[in-house]
Amino acid sequence: MRFDDYLLLSLLLLLPFYFRFGWRKPALSYPTVKILKKVRPSFRMRLRNFPKLLNVLALALVIFALARPQLVNREKEVSTRGTDIVLALDISGSMQAEDFKPKNRLYVAKEVLKSFVKGRNSDRIGLVAFAGQAYTQSPLTIDYGILYSLVDELEIGRYEDGTAIGMAIAEGTKRLKSSEAETKIIILLTDGVNNSGNIDPATAARVSAALGIKVYTVGVGIEGGAPIPVDDPIFGKVYARDRSGNIIRTEMDEESLKEVAKITKAKYYRATDRDSLIRIYGEIDKLEKTDIKVKEYYSYVELYAYFLGAALFLFLFSLLLRSTWLWSYP
Prior knowledge:
Elements (H helix, E strand, L loop, with lengths): L1 E2 L11 H7 L12 H4 L5 H4 L3 H17 L2 E10 L4 E8 L14 H15 L4 E7 L3 E8 L2 H10 L11 H12 L6 E8 L10 H10 L2 E8 L8 E4 L3 E4 L14 H10 L4 E4 L2 H14 L6 E9 L1 H20 L7
Parallel strand pairs: 3-4, 3-6, 6-7, 7-10
Antiparallel strand pairs: 1-2, 2-11, 4-5, 8-9
């Protein structure tokens, strides 16, 4: 609720003076009040000023009415389509590597993705998860609360293991191909080498480029790779080893990721820890901001009649009390 003329509300400051000095003075006086002090006032006597209080409240309502209280209805009209984004996240077994603190690569990637989504405004965002194959977790939506939940639910082992980078790009492209947004992008995060699926990353990237879709690629992991923890039913957490007993370390095909970004006129980034990953998504966020033109329409519903009606009721009720039950003389 708003008031059309807030200045008139300053009249409310006069009401305390009216309450203090505006009452009628007693017409009778007594040489002494010692006897009257011994008389206990009745309930009716205690309410003798109640009609006057009603008058003050009624005057306050009249002042509110003069200030024209209004209910405001606001509507927005978005005149541009903003940006459509597909987040493609690797959930293969290697994302368990613990070189990203706290916990592992997947945990940190999920937290950064949620922060990225939270920072967008009016953009539609979709979610693709991939391991041995790529699957759409959410089509393009502005329901960010649902996206948070879906990101939280992603876990390693949900799908057959592997790293289908080309399939992830193709799945994201499929979600964006009919988009009418001014900007269409895929942000693909992975720590591996394309070793699954029937589409290679470069071919998928050329299809994306033909449709005007940029593919930002983000490689995660320290230089030289990191051990991959696995759960052993007997020994608990151990690290994956090859047949010769050597610890297997993660590998990443940076050249392929750079090529994908180059084909689609986007950029490749390398994240080696949590802070660098946050900076990368922050930079992409700044690069792909679209100005949203919003027109706002306001309509007003006048409420002064309700205040005047309530004031009239209080005045009449005060008059009725002073003429009947609380009547006094003179």
